[in-house]
Write a structure and sequence with these properties.
Length: 211
């Protein structure tokens, strides 16, 4: 039976498209994108999902506090029997209710080498700080901002002539690569969590651990 993935987004949805392509071409096997959700009417990612024939829903957040809103989203995810939630440029902090409902089953991609430069405009933060390497991180989501256990990271050299746009573009290419890889690892159970450390397992080890 295929694993059911939900994607939450706020904007263009490029990581959504990369994940969808990976499901389609078998890079993420035995899985399907079951629903795409946004809090923003008119989010380009929603239109792209609909163009692909995917169930895409807008759950408006205006006038709702975080907990009340997240209860509506969680209800949709439970209705769709979702196995894994992937945040793809989702510009909302999740409530404790949401995190508890899908503990260990929510992933996020962030455009920095966490724990450096959490929050907004990570690429600009990296340039202003003068780092020599930037990158991206896939991590489990907990109640804190960009703070859950790290699954995968990828580095990108920072060039002397980089702008926010040029650095962001190179980081985004790595985001598309490692997010799909991380999703496959999690869906196949090829990991274990020891404190804050995510230990990646070979396929044979994963099979033994789930016997």
């Amino acid at each position: 039976m295929k694993k059911r993935i939900a994607i939450l987004l706020s904007g263009r949805g490029s990581n959504f498209e990369a994940l969808t392509d990976s499901v389609s071409n078998g890079r993420i096997p035995n899985a399907e994108i079951s629903v795409v959700i946004s809090h923003r009417e008119g989010a380009p990612g929603i239109e792209r999902a609909r163009a692909r024939g995917i169930d895409a829903r807008v759950v408006p957040s205006k006038g709702l506090d975080r907990d009340a809103y997240d209860r509506q989203v969680v209800a949709v995810l439970q209705e769709k029997k979702i196995d894994l939630v992937c945040l793809a440029g989702y510009m909302r902090l999740l409530s404790s209710y949401f995190v508890q409902a899908f503990r260990g089953r929510i992933l996020n991609i962030h455009p920095s080498l966490l724990p450096a430069f959490p929050g907004l405009e990570a690429q600009r933060q990296a340039l202003e700080h003068g780092v020599k390497f930037a990158g991206c991180t896939v991590h489990f989501v907990d109640e804190n901002l960009d703070a859950g256990p790290i699954i995968l990271q990828a580095t990108v050299p920072v060039r002397d002539d980089d702008t926010v746009d040029s650095l962001s573009a190179r980081i985004l290419a790595e985001e598309h690569r490692i997010y799909s890889e991380a999703v496959r690892i999690v869906l196949e159970g090829r990991y274990r969590v020891e404190g804050r450390r995510v230990v990646l397992l070979k396929e044979a080890e994963a099979a033994k651990s789930h016997v």
